[in-house]
Design brief:
The complex is a heterodimer.
Chain A: H1 43-72, H2 75-102, H3 112-132
Helix pairs in contact in A: 1-2, 1-3, 2-3
Chain B: H1 2-13, H2 27-57, H3 63-97, H4 106-127
Classes of the chains: A mainly alpha, B mainly alpha.
Protein name (chain B): DUF202 domain-containing protein
GO cellular component, one term (chain B): plasma membrane
Membrane topology (chain B): Multi-pass membrane protein
Amino acid sequence: MTGGLPAHDGPAGRGQADGTPEPARGTPSEPVCETPPRDPGVQPERTWLAWRRTTLTYAVSVGLAARVAVAEHSATAVAAAALGAVAWAALLLTAQRRRRGLAVRQPAPMDAVQVIGTLASVLVLIVVGGMLL
Amino acid sequence: MRDRISGTLRLWFSPQRLREEGTTPDYRFSLANERTFLAWIRTSLALVAGGIAVDQFLTGLRWGARTTVAIVLLAGAALCAVRAVNHWVRCERAMRRGEDLPASRFPVLLATGTAAAAVLVIAVVVLGLAGR
């Protein structure tokens, strides 16, 4: 999964521990992401970016729904687009909450709010798609 | 069987119960599992977008054909999203127990379904079948 990276954890401390050999890190002059580096695979950051991609993908569908609402002017389409926008905001909040969970040294797996919140917002979007038919 | 289903359902809504068994795996494996979950969620979202787009942009089709394709895509999206949660829970549990990760037939089903839908849309668009 991590492409043959060493199995040990990242440096225990921040700051002066930056000198430990870490093949996957960038040059020292690069700005460090706001979460402290933990392992050479920057797993928490990659996971956060996966959340970001997911919220962006969601926004595409909400945008499509908004386009329909503007083009058709029907009450159903406007309600569907509004519902989609609200669900998108909920997904953003879920992702933001997860971001805080990822910002610790050894992040715990997702909790129920994140799993069910994500599932629920996707199901709401499917309802939105059904309303637009 | 019913116990297993209800047990898995309970895990969906309270994944913290997973901690009751096995040992905590390296957190990086959990994060990889989480990214896989999110990738499946994005697959589902792409199917939703496809469903909306088919309904909006394939206006050359009869209403029935268009709506059928859209509904199939939306139903596939729902299946994909629910299955994403289920697969995440099962992988997380397998990692805690030190078991093999669950094998699944779902990817091949999804690939077959997507290919069939694509062929259908191509036939409809290019050959003008089911036109108005």
